[in-house]
Amino acid sequence: MQVLKAHKVTKYFYEPEKFQVLKAIDLSVSKGEFLSLVGKSGCGKSTLLYVLSTMDTDYEGELEIAGQRLTGKDQNQLSKFRNAHIGFVFQFHYLLPEFSVLQNVMIPALKLARYSPHEIEERAYEKLTMLGVQEQALKPSNKLSGGQQQRVAIARALINDPDIIMGDEPTGNLDSYNTHVVFDIFNELTQRYKQTIIAVTHDEEFAKKSDRIVEMSDGKIVS
Ligand SMILES: Nc1ncnc2c1ncn2[C@@H]1O[C@H](COP(=O)(O)OP(=O)(O)OP(=O)(O)O)[C@@H](O)[C@H]1O
């Protein structure tokens, strides 16, 4: 089953001059696949991820995720779609420091309101337990180590059972121990739970161990 399909995705930047950053990109991602997106700095990885994540709508071509055609939807529809279907893990985790770990994980689910607040709290504990940070649940998020904060960010990305997790340098800010931890978590999510993951990475070791490496060069997929 295909979770994501991009067809002939093309994008230009116009400042400081017209420049084609994405050149007719075709990409299909299957359920349970762990895909690393690699390539030299400036080849267009982050720009592509931004389009695939529906945050950038200024492109030509077609994008479909979880059977829904997303090209042409408005920002309000896309924001709801993202919250329900896409989990994000960034280099910098963007946890809210004034909230507890538990609250940070619960926020996307409270917004979605698919479950009651009590059920959401239980689910948040489940995800934190899965990631081995349940004992930190009631601490303010900024009192955790970098590696622990990234695990909380992954728990938050998982809270709405997304069809796909997208990561932009998800281990970019971590030491080698925590890079391994995050890789193992991603690997287990795909193996055991059939989670689909796309991660932009500069880390060759990380990429090599994933299921599939997609390499970009000069706005195109080359392998
Ligand atoms: N808002 C923008 N306006 C104009 N040019 C941009 C803009 N954002 C990115 N670019 C250019 O588009 C190209 C691709 O950028 P992008 O950030 O996608 O590359 P990348 O492969 O993710 O690089 P890195 O690995 O360094 O993060 C680069 O040449 C960059 O300078």
Automatic annotation (TrEMBL):
CDD domains reported in the protein's UniProt record: ABC_MJ0796_LolCDE_FtsE (cd03255)
Pfam families in the record: ABC_tran
InterPro entries (alphabetical): AAA+_ATPase, ABC_transporter-like_ATP-bd, ABC_transporter-like_CS, ABC_transpr_LolD-like, MacB-like_ATP-bd, P-loop_NTPase
Start and end residues of each ABC transporter domain: 4-222
Keywords for the protein's UniProt record, in alphabetical order: ATP-binding, Nucleotide-binding, Transport
GO molecular function, one term: ATP binding
PROSITE patterns reported in the protein's UniProt record: ABC_TRANSPORTER_1, ABC_TRANSPORTER_2
Highest rank taxon of the organism: Bacteria
Keyword hit for Disulfide bond: no
Keyword check for Oxidoreductase: no
Protein name as catalogued: ABC transporter ATP-binding protein
Species per Swiss-Prot/TrEMBL record: Ohtaekwangia kribbensis
